[in-house]
Amino acid sequence: MNDTKPKHDRTAQAGKARTKAEQAAERAAPERKAGAEQLQAENARLKEELSREHEIYLRNLADFENYRRRVERERASVAQAGKREMVLSLLDVLDDFERALEHMDEAPASVSAGVSAIYQRLAGLLESQGVIPFESVGQPFDPALHEAVGSVESDEQEPGVVLDELRRGYRWGEELLRPARVRVAQ
Q1: DSSP assignments along 23-35, one per residue
Q2: Quick check: is 41 in a domain?
Q3: Strands of the sheet with 146-152, listed across from one edge
């Protein structure tokens, strides 16, 4: 290093260079500060937008879950209503078998046994599906369970008690499937 300039000139030039660098840094500081503030504001805006979008996403997710549950309930309800109509029709057939069995005295034994077997099978099928008859005779009249088709003077029962069952009533689980048609004591 063969420097021809004296050492103090080099130091003076370095000082000037530092001074120029410091001046440039001082001029750039407000711009950097404004840039940083702008980035912070942009960051805050993006965070707020992300939060809003996330809330919308959660709301839509909850709406879809509610929709899915409602559709499932409606599907089950429609299926239950279809089954209910079928079971009510089968109860009418069961009633016809009961009436037929009452008049089988004169029929051959094989016919009577066949009709009885079919009746038992149909009754067993309905019972396996949860369709169960309930007793009405001797019970107090309950408009939720009974359909009164007449009243009869009676010394044997208290007024308001079911004397005769014209059509048997059935439950399906805990639900009333068909009310019993009854005559009530007066």
Answers
A1: HHHHHHHHHHHHH
A2: no
A3: 146-152, 180-185, 162-167
